[in-house]
Structure formats: structure tokens, C-alpha cells
């Protein structure tokens, strides 16, 4: 017999099959019968602006998948940041049962535990493929479950933006000295790394960034990548667009379900939610690769954005301080240390493989098909 875990690895196929094999549309207010799903409405709060491309729509898509795969029995109503609770209040709302599900970035919760950062992205950390491998097969999910359970939450990966850009700056960065004193929007451990090299890191939700850049409250910002950055129009306020990003090489986004609610669900209901998250995660990676490439072309050719590479001395300083910050973070407590060691071991294995597969292949392909 196929083990449940193997079935769920099939993502939407496995969960959709489970949903299709039952009578899923119990009437509102009616009692569930054997083989059916209890009809209920679930509230999803998010950290994203309403209908925002990629991030906001990723949350809405996850909610839609849960609803569709349950035959409409589990109806998920989505609240954008600020509609029910503020962006950074989503975690607490789900933890205490004021909402049922959140969709956001786990590094927003580092005030609860610094270990949460490892499940979104850390400086010079994992790519999208690597963090997916760690979460699904390298022990990451089990550690994430343990950490989140302390806050009455059951977590899942439900999106990934891929490699993010270094950010937008109002003036050129020619050396490490040019970074000193700059006010840059960057959350998570990346923000702490910026502080170590002399910049000031500012934590702002997505909806607050443009105004802060426009008013001069910040001198630069990272957000996501070309697709989302184009939607926010940062090019109107900052001329220089820097690469590569050091802080989020594969930013995984998460769904958190209230643990009391989760524990009360049937196996079928749990499988639908998990399968919907897998499906959303898969689609988001493909979506970002496609739209980032298209948007980058628009930024350069339609809006005159100047693409710049971060100077070597800046990247070297960022790498040095990133190592220090991660090692210090690992000393916070036992679970953070165990998560860091698991993360580091999985990344080391991935690096050996990618070093003889992806990296040399991409180099040769660029030489052959240079544009």
C-alpha cells in the first residue's frame, strides 16, 4: 500500500483524488456524515496587500485550492493586511484563534523566535529548490512543526519567490563606504547583517515601502524581484537596481493553521489543506520565474532602470557578517541551534550536488547561448 506521506508528496493530485472520492458538499450548518467533510468557513489573514501580484494572489490561490478541493465544504475567506488585523499581527491572530489560517513570511515572526527565519530565508542561505528539499525530505518540516506548535500553529510551505534582488537605491553604491549610514528597508536576519556593515535596517510591511522611499524616510529598499517591484513602481523613486540579493536566495512563504483547529480536522480535511499548500508552492515557483524575466525586460527597456552589480567589497563584507549572525543566532536556544544545524547540513549536501550539476551547466549554457 502507498504510504500517506508518499501520496501527499504528489501534492494536488493526491489531495484532489481524496476529495474527489467522497461526498464533500455537506450543507451549511448540517452535520457531517461518514465520508463527507463538515461544512465550515475559515478565515485566512495575510501579510500582503490585497490582490498584490504573486504574494497576495498566492494567498488567494491557496484559499481557492482548499475550497475547490473540498468541494466547497471548506470555504476560505481571505483578508488582506489591515482588513481584519495588521500584517504583523497575523501570527498572533491565528495563534489565539481569532483567525484560522495565515499566509505570510515566517521571518516576520523572529520576535517570537529567531528560528522562524530559517523557514523563509536567511542571508547566504538556501535557494528555492534547496529549501524545498530540506523542508520536505531533510527534516525541516518536523522541526518547523515542533517550533510552531509552541505557538499553537501547524505550518506548511505555500509559496516561494525564488532568488530576490539586492534592492533599489537612490544613489550609486561603488564601495562598502557608500553603504554606511544608509537607511534600507530589510527585515529578518538580513537587516541585522546590514547593521553590522554600517547601514540602518528598517522593518516595513509591503504597503508602507513606497511612501517611505518617496518621503526620504529610507534611502533604499529590497522587496522581492522584478515582478513585484515593478507593480509597486519603485523605479519612480530609485534609479539604481542592484544584484545579486544576499538576504533571500529562495524565500519560502508559509501557511499557518491554528493547531486546535488542525487537531480537530479529519485525515481527509488535513490532506486537502496540505495538498492545496503543495500545489500553491509548486505553481508559485514557476510563476515567479516567468514573470520576473518579463518584468525585468520592462524595467530596463520601458522605464530606463539601471541594473548594477553590488561591488565585491560589499558582498565580501555581507558574507562575513552573515556567517557571524547565523552562528550567533544558533546560540539563542536549543531549538534554534538544532534548526540551524539541520539547515546547514542540508545546504552543504545540496551545494556538493549543485556544484557538479547546475553551476557548471549554467556557465556552459551562457557561453554557448550568450545573448
List the helices and strands and how they pair.
Elements (H helix, E strand, L loop, with lengths): L3 H5 L3 H9 L19 E7 L8 H15 L4 E6 L10 H6 L5 E4 L23 H10 L2 H10 L3 E8 L6 E3 L13 E3 L2 H9 L3 E3 L3 H10 L4 E2 L4 H7 L7 E4 L8 E7 H5 L3 H35 L4 E4 L2 H18 L4 H23 L1 H11 L3
Parallel strand pairs: 1-2, 1-3, 6-7, 6-8, 9-11
Antiparallel strand pairs: 3-10, 4-10, 5-8, 5-9
Helix pairs in contact: 2-11, 3-11, 5-6, 5-13, 6-13, 7-12, 9-11, 13-14
Pfam family, one: DctP
Keywords: Metal-binding, Signal
GO biological process, one term: transmembrane transport
Task: Write out key terms for the chains shown.
371 residues; D-Maltodextrin-Binding Protein, domain 2; six-stranded mixed beta sheet; 11 strands; 47% helix; globular
CATH class of the largest domain: Alpha Beta
Uncertain regions spanning at least 5 consecutive residues = 1-34
Mean pLDDT: 90
Gross geometry:
globular
**Beta-strand residue fraction:** 5-15%
Q: What count of structural domains?
A: 2
Number of strands: 11
The CATH superfamily of the largest domain is identified as: Bacterial extracellular solute-binding protein, family 7
CATH topology of the largest domain, what is it called? D-Maltodextrin-Binding Protein, domain 2
Task: Measure the end-to-end span.
Answer: 50 Å
Described by strand count, sense and barrel closure, the largest sheet is: 6 strands, mixed
Helicity, as a percent range: 40-55%
State the secondary-structure class. Answer: alpha/beta
Q: In what order do the strands lie side by side in the largest sheet?
A: 7-6-8-5-9-11
* Number of helical elements: 14
Order of helices and strands: HHEHEHEHHEEEHEHEHEEHHEHHH
Radius of gyration: 21 Å
- In CATH, the architecture of the largest domain is 3-Layer(aba) Sandwich
Protein name: TRAP transporter substrate-binding protein
Binding site for Na(+): 223
GO cellular component, one term: tripartite ATP-independent periplasmic transporter complex
Keywords: Metal-binding, Signal
Amino acid at each position: 500500500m502507498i504510504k500517506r506521506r508518499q501520496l501527499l508528496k504528489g501534492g494536488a493530485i493526491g489531495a484532489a483524488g481524496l476529495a474527489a472520492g467522497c461526498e464533500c458538499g455537506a450543507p451549511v450548518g448540517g452535520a457531517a456524515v461518514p465520508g463527507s467533510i463538515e461544512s465550515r468557513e475559515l478565515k485566512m489573514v495575510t501579510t500582503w496587500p490585497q490582490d498584490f501580484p504573486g504574494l497576495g494572489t498566492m494567498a488567494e490561490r491557496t484559499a481557492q485550492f482548499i475550497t475547490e478541493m473540498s468541494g466547497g465544504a471548506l470555504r476560505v475567506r481571505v483578508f488582506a493586511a489591515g482588513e481584519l488585523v495588521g500584517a504583523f499581527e497575523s501570527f498572533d491572530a491565528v495563534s489565539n484563534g481569532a483567525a484560522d489560517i495565515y499566509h505570510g513570511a515566517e521571518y516576520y515572526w523572529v520576535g517570537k523566535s529567531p528560528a522562524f527565519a530559517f523557514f523563509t530565508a536567511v542571508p547566504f542561505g538556501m535557494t528555492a529548490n534547496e529549501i524545498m528539499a530540506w523542508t520536505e525530505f531533510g527534516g525541516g518540516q518536523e522541526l518547523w512543526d515542533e517550533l510552531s506548535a509552541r505557538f499553537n500553529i501547524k505550518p506548511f510551505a505555500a509559496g516561494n519567490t525564488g532568488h530576490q534582488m539586492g534592492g533599489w537605491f537612490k544613489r550609486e553604491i561603488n564601495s562598502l563606504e557608500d553603504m554606511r549610514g544608509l537607511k534600507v528597508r530589510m527585515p529578518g536576519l538580513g537587516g541585522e547583517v546590514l547593521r553590522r556593515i554600517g547601514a540602518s535596517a528598517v522593518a516595513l510591511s509591503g504597503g508602507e515601502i513606497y511612501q517611505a522611499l518617496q518621503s526620504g524616510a529610507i534611502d533604499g529598499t529590497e522587496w522581492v524581484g522584478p515582478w513585484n517591484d515593478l507593480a509597486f513602481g519603485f523605479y519612480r523613486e530609485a534609479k539604481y537596481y542592484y544584484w545579486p540579493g544576499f538576504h533571500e536566495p529562495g524565500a519560502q512563504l508559509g501557511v499557518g493553521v491554528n493547531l486546535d483547529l488542525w487537531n480537530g480536522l479529519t485525515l481527509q480535511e488535513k490532506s486537502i489543506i496540505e495538498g492545496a499548500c503543495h500545489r500553491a508552492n509548486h505553481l508559485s515557483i514557476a510563476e515567479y520565474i516567468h514573470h520576473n524575466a518579463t518584468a525585468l525586460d520592462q524595467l530596463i527597456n520601458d522605464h530606463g532602470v539601471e541594473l548594477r552589480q553590488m561591488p565585491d567589497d560589499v558582498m565580501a563584507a555581507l558574507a562575513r557578517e552573515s556567517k557571524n549572525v547565523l552562528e550567533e543566532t544558533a546560540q539563542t536556544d536549543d531549538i534554534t541551534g538544532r534548526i540551524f544545524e539541520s539547515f546547514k547540513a542540508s545546504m552543504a549536501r545540496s551545494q556538493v550536488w549543485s556544484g557538479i550539476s547546475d553551476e557548471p551547466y549554467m556557465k556552459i549554457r551562457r557561453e554557448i547561448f550568450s545573448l
